[in-house]
Please model this.
Amino acid sequence: MTMVPVESSDPILVPRRVALVRPDTRPLVRRTQEKFVMTFPHLIVREIILFQIVVIVLSVIALLFNAPLEGIANPLETPNPSKAPWYFLGLQELLHYFPPVVAGVVLPGLVVACLVVIPYANINLTAGPLWPAEPDRARRTALGVGGASAFVALLFAAFQCWPVVVPTVGIAAAMFMARSARPEDRVRGFLREVTLPEWIFTWFVLVATILTVLGTFFRGPGWSLVWPWNMNVLG
Amino acid sequence: MSDAPTASLSGQAWAWLRATAVWRSIVRHGVADSNRNRSLVVFESIFLHLHPIKVRERSLKFTHTFWAGGITLCCTFILVATGVLLMFYYHPSVPQAYLDIRELQFVVDNGVFYRNLHRWAAHLMVFGAIAHMLRVFYHRAYRPPRQFNWVVGVVLMLITLLLSYTGYLLPWDQLAFWGVSVGTNMAKAAPLIGKPLRFLLLGGNIVSENALLRFYVLHCVVLPVVLLLFVSVHIWRVRKDGGVQGPHDPSQDEEEKP
Model:
């Protein structure tokens, strides 16, 4: 059998592939310039190493630190404070400021709804840097940013929920700092490139972190403020 | 290579094993020394077939994904393995549940180690899932065609939290009991459905033995099965959408817009 050179232009010997690539097709079809490597061994070996690292690190932690175990459950003896697991302590902290229907249902429901719509909201797909170059549009952006931040800050301030008010004001300040930034400036030049969705998401992450840390490490009997070294925080 | 006369004894043993009819019936392809056989390693294995045959070299870089989703998945495997071991020694009843956990500590060989491993892996799984979500957001990897996979990810995050939360009750100590009481009291606040939902979840109006059994079944059967289902969809879609997407690359923006 003779080998047919791949370069042969005879369509019988070397069939041509014709592909119709529509613009809404998958990105893999569009990016053909990239270098590919074999999944085995390149990816599989890395996955195995990752698994080994996770097992080893967790094993060391498991050898050094015991999981907490208190006395047997007693419905008649309420510990003060009673805390939910750490990932719910942000919500429990909100319970301190808002009625249960807001802290336990409305706000978490809003968070989940907002997370779900992220990829479907047009602004998340097309957004560029927050501050436009034209002075007119920049002024409108400033009005929007200032108005929205003030609304959120005042809303939470009405409930004296300072752990939300403070980061809201902080993020708003950073947004306005980005406006006057020159591109040469390293930190503020970086801020200039941040998009509106990124600002909002960062605000959310900051608020959630502050609430969770506050609820976990700084709340003692009767949900009063205490220093972490004055209580047992392992939960 | 293994046929070379200088091959070690173990090398010869391997070569002999690979040549046996039984081995050939299990692993049909030869040694993975050619690209054809390397692709068959992935192609012919049910455990690896969620992978493509080839991956973009760029996607292997650490900063491409920080392996956050991978860490979460590793935790899932560890949790299933240690969880099955813990189930051998656990009765979901009052007060036996608490006594069983005590026994893990003082009677069962390595019991406390496996309980610790399960507990810390659960915390790391929640952390890993959060880190993965942050990574995907800031890399804008939720953009088309990956929109729906982001939604699947949100569902996975909720399942992860529910798994962690249902497991939190099982030791039946003060921490578990009051932690779950606080959480389920919040559910009570939901208008109309809050109270019935809480009753359904707890099998009563307070956290009791019924709640322990329900949380146990949810934790060990229902939620892991649902998790497996959604994780499969999640990873399968990553592959179908052209592999993991790393940092946002403005030079490819034009390709994104038709």
